[in-house]
Amino acid sequence: MNQNNSLEFFLRFVKQRHVAVVNASDQLVGALASDNPQSKKMRADKLAQEAGALLSAISSEDRPAWLPPLHSISLAVSKGAQQPEKILRFLLENNSAIRNHKWQFEQDDKKQAFDFDEIFEYYRSESRVPELFENIIQILEEIYGSGEIDSLSMMNALSKLIATLKRSKNGSYFSINSAWEFLLSFLNNYFWTEVSNLPVAGSVIAALKQTIEETNEEMFKLHTKVDQKLKETVESETKGLSKPKFQFLSYDKSGQNISDITPGGSVSGKA
User: Fold this and answer.
1) Does the pLDDT value for residue 48 go beyond 70?
2) Which of 5, 37, 48, 95 could form a disulfide with 75 if both were Cys (CB 3.0 to 4.6 A apart)?
3) Phi and psi of 79, rounded to 5°?
4) d(CA 254, CA 207)
């Protein structure tokens, strides 16, 4: 069993013991409402056993404040050393804390993870990429609704592209890049040639080309910032990776991989 499996097993065990404590507490409250002293002691003893099992499973630093007194009071009631009213009062006062307790080591484990999507989303929201994607969609919709395109295949492809951009513009890193690649492939391999002789190929097409240029520049800036932040984060928190590398699947307006593009849109000398 590797470390991750061992941790998952431990977390499941602690959660199971916690659930058992909650269930035993509910059963004791039910017994306390009856007139059966023996049932009260039996249920108190059951709660003391479950609370004791949970106590023994975790370190003193991880024990919630309610657990030690829950164990000691229920144990005392089961032995007749305390009145049942005391455990009832304790359970009522601490009901929410007992039921809704979040284990610190479980939360710490989640905090240790690198959230790459969160980093990308942060810099994407600070960039002009959402605005520029919206501008591209509006221009394509204007072209689609102009009535100047008489090719059914072109109209179908344009409709599919618009729908894809709308669905992906606020999506994940993969969705954004896939939509961007689809857009560039459509424009370079089909669209520019087909519309070059149409009446619509005037100011609207010029606006589209300008927006693509701006988006290319903004995509480069976005990925540069994300790349730098990921390297800084991983390098600072994972000493074994002194110079981490992240290869992004992104493309500029000419179909070049973004890693081969220098600021300003020119292609570097890499093959």
Assistant:
1) yes
2) 48
3) -95, 0
4) 17
pLDDT in tens, 118-151: 888 888 888 999 999 999 999 999 988 888 888 8
Rounded to an integer, the average pLDDT of 246-261 is 45
Which sign, positive or negative, has the C-alpha torsion 4, 6, 8, 10?
negative
The residues with which 267 forms a beta bridge, in sequence order, are: 261
When the pLDDT of each residue in the chain is averaged and rounded to a whole number, the result is 81
Judge whether 177 and 215 are in contact, CB under 8 Å: no
Here the tokens at position 239 are 């000493």
Q: Is the pLDDT of residue 57 over 80?
A: yes
Q: 31: closest CA among 23, 22, 40? A: 40
C-beta separation of 208 from 139 below 8 A: yes
Side chain identity, residue 81: A
Three-state secondary structure of the chain: CCHHHHHHHHHHHHHHHHHHHHHHHHHHHHHHCCCCHHHHHHHHHHHHHHHHHHHHHCCHHHCCCCHHHHHHHHHHHHCCCCCHHHHHHHHHHCHHHHHCCCCHHHHHHHHCCCCHHHHHHHHHHHCCHHHHHHHHHHHHHHHHCCCCCCCHHHHHHHHHHHHHHHHHCCCCHHHHHHHHHHHHHHHHHHHHHHHCCCCCCCHHHHHHHHHHHHHHHHHHHHHHHHHHHHHHHHHHHCCCCCCCCCCCCCECCCCCEHHHECCCCCECCCC
- Tokens describing residue 18: 């916690």
Task: Tell me the C-alpha distance between 270 and 220, whole Å.
Answer: 16
Report if pTM > 0.85. Answer: no
Q: CA-to-CA distance for 144 and 155, rounded, in angstroms?
A: 7
Question: The tokens 């896939």 sit on which residue?
Answer: 178
